[in-house]
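pipeline stage [seq->struct] | target=NIPSNAP protein | organism=Actinacidiphila alni | residues=107
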Amino acid sequence: MITCVVRYTVDPKKITAFEQFARRWMALVQAHGGTHHGYFLPAEGASDEALALFSFPGLAAYEEYRQLFGRDPEFIEADRIRDESGCVLRYERTFMRPLLPGDDGSA
């Protein structure tokens, strides 16, 4: 399993648009073989950081999903929310391997 962690810098004045963007991407990840663990949004103070975590069975499955970017109409529409609203100022993507409760290390 591979987990993608996306760290966003968001415009705090455009959180509603970011939530719309996030809901759309959660559905797309789920519909294309991944498990979305949610978006984590600013809750207190003047924070402009948000996180998203989602997993795919492996890098090959993630790459299949990535092939739809810029080509599939639903993916294009999801990105349009971000682009037209300006809710995301920047983002960075990191891949991690989860260690989950019950993992005994005998992989």
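stage status: PASS
auto-comment: The first strand starts at residue 2 and ends at 10. The domain at 2-96 is CATH 3.30.70.100 (Alpha-Beta Plaits).
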